[in-house]
Design brief:
Its EC number is 2.7.7.65. It comes from Pseudoluteimonas lycopersici. The chain is built from nine helices and 15 strands. By secondary structure, the chain is of the alpha+beta class. It folds into two domains: 181 residues, Jelly Rolls, CATH 2.60.120; 147 residues, Alpha-Beta Plaits (2-Layer Sandwich). The protein is rod-shaped. Bound molecules: guanosine-5'-triphosphate.
Length: 343
């Protein structure tokens, strides 16, 4: 046995990589000599692949001369092994197993290869030396597993943190997007929400059969002036409640600002539309007639028009607004329709 062969005779065969993975195990000269006698020598050219990650392996290798690179995949650093170092030891210890790293020859390399069947031969020849090797190899495998498990757990935590942050950011974004479309006081959509709803209906070619009702409080300024701003707020919220109560899932009730509201509503025909508008004005009228102090509501005026899918939003808005103006001019607490239909 040539005890001097191999220039990497280990004084401390178990060394740690910077990231903590224990890899740098070299055989002692006596171990190297024993493995060389029992195993088979094989020559490889630079660039040759010994095995890939995920391959089934049944052999281990000891480098006599040359260099081999191990690739563990992911973001784990690659490792270059040199003379005297061994790898693939699970092939010797447990036989058939899935390789956790790929191995590629970097320079012309001479290896000794040993299969799982040769463990017994090694033990027969020098049990003490093999026990020493096994102890070291198993320690290395266990330590590497621990380091890899720790890394995985840390990655898992980091991934979890990143997902939590992403989820929080998405929720915040959704909330702020909702806020941009919602009226804080009443919880209704605002003008932007109404326009987006219209755009969606246009895209889906569902706008036909809809009408725009502009709803405005009568003498609302007086509520504020006489009873205070909070009482005014409560009136606005109650107007919103009435509108919400008539709006179906395909309708949208919005507050455009101040005491002006809008209802984009689908109706079967003019009579249906009149019934909806009549319910709104009639409910506000009945509640106002109860004359609570401070008032819970004020009477309402409505200007309405059918939506023409072939004309622009600004056209229907102008039509409904002109009708609303007429309803106000006639004393409020009433409904006026664009052109043909007056209540
Ligand atoms: N309480 C309260 N008042 C508001 C709010 N936004 C606007 N206003 C007030 O609403 C009032 C609207 O007054 P006007 O536009 O003259 O309406 P009006 O008194 O109903 O008059 P007509 O529409 O002609 O019947 C103003 O006094 C605004 O200050 C709000 O969010 N809360």
């Amino acid at each position: 046995m040539d005890e001097g062969r191999g220039n990497a005779v280990a004084t401390d065969p178990v060394l740690r990589r910077q990231d903590g993975v224990v890899m740098d195990a070299a055989l002692s000269p006596s171990e190297l000599a024993l493995f060389d006698v029992v195993g088979r020598r094989r020559d490889f050219d630079a660039g040759e692949r010994l095995f890939s990650r995920g391959d089934n392996g049944r052999t281990m290798f000891v480098i006599l001369d040359g260099r081999v690179e191990l690739d563990f995949g992911g973001d784990l650093a690659r490792k270059t092994l040199g003379p005297g170092e061994f790898f693939g030891e699970l092939g010797l210890l447990v036989g058939d197993h899935v390789r956790s790293a790929g191995a590629r020859v970097l320079a012309a390399t001479e290896l000794v290869e040993l299969g799982d069947g040769e463990l017994e031969t090694l033990l027969d020849r020098d049990p003490r030396l093999v026990a020493q090797f096994l102890h070291r190899a198993i320690t290395r495998i266990v330590r590497n597993e621990q380091v890899l498990t720790h890394r995985l757990r840390r990655h898992n935590h980091e991934l979890q943190d990143a997902l939590d942050r992403l989820r929080a950011a998405t929720q915040a974004l959704t909330r702020s997007e909702e806020l941009v479309r919602r009226d804080d006081l009443t919880g209704l959509g605002n003008r932007r929400a109404c326009q987006e709803h219209v755009e969606r209906l246009v895209r889906e070619q569902q706008l036909g059969g809809h009408a725009l009702l502009l709803v405005d409080c009568d003498a609302f300024k007086r509520v504020n002036d006489v009873h205070g701003h909070q009482a005014g707020d409560r009136v606005l919220q109650n107007v919103a409640n009435i509108l919400t109560s008539v709006a179906t899932a395909s309708d949208t009730a919005c507050r455009f600002g101040g005491d002006e509201f809008a209802l984009l509503v689908r109706a079967r025909d003019q009579a249906d539309l009149q019934r909806i508008a009549g319910f709104i004005v009639g409910t506000a009228h009945s509640l106002a007639a109860m004359q609570s102090e401070p008032p819970a509501i004020c009477t309402l005026s409505i200007g309405g028009c059918w939506v023409d899918p072939d004309s622009a939003w600004s056209d229907w808005y102008a039509n409904a607004d002109a009708a609303l103006y007429r309803a106000k001019r006639s004393g409020g607490d009433t409904i006026a329709w664009h052109v043909a239909w007056e209540s």
